[in-house]
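ESCALATION

Customer reports they have been waiting on this structure for their group meeting. Please prioritize. Original submission:
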Amino acid sequence: MRGYDEFVGRIFEIVSPGVLLLILLAITALTAALWYWWPAWVPRSWPRLRLPRLRLPRFRRRQRKTRHSKQRATPAGTGSAKPGSKTPAGTALSLADRLAAEGRYAEAIRERLRDTVTALTRAGVVTPEPGTTAHELATAAGTGRPVVAPALTGATGLFSEVWYGHRPAGQPEDDRMRDLTAEVRAALDDGATR
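Update from on-call: job pushed to the front of the queue and completed.
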């Protein structure tokens, strides 16, 4: 400790504390600026020290054919439904149904909302733009076609709770989302036949 005190004392004999503080601030600012703009000011032609690479032998495992590879070989829509789901066996499963069958309910809810937005866009009810929130979408669809407003507001609210509110999603939430999006589609079909 005494050596440190003597060292600091010698520095203060040469440089006043105010000037030393300014020097330290300048060094800090220069370091921060160089750190921030590092790639821009480094010349690309600097020689680099290249060390020889030591390569260890790679042992490759034989890939076994599993059930997953057989399942991937079948077309996506020809699988049977999960027992307890509302989709009958033999019908084409949507991506949302497949996600729900895998237990990925939050992603299934998001996909169901995407499919509904696609249906609303095709019907000419909304024109989604990048950055449009689910609430803005429901408001625009409710203004364009008031019949879809209650179901779509419920669907976007459920989506927001699960996706942005990080509420755990399960089979009941997915079933509710399926019912709400079916109501929106039914309202769109009723409006199209009139």
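Sent to customer with the following note: The chain has a mean pLDDT of 77.
Escalation resolved.
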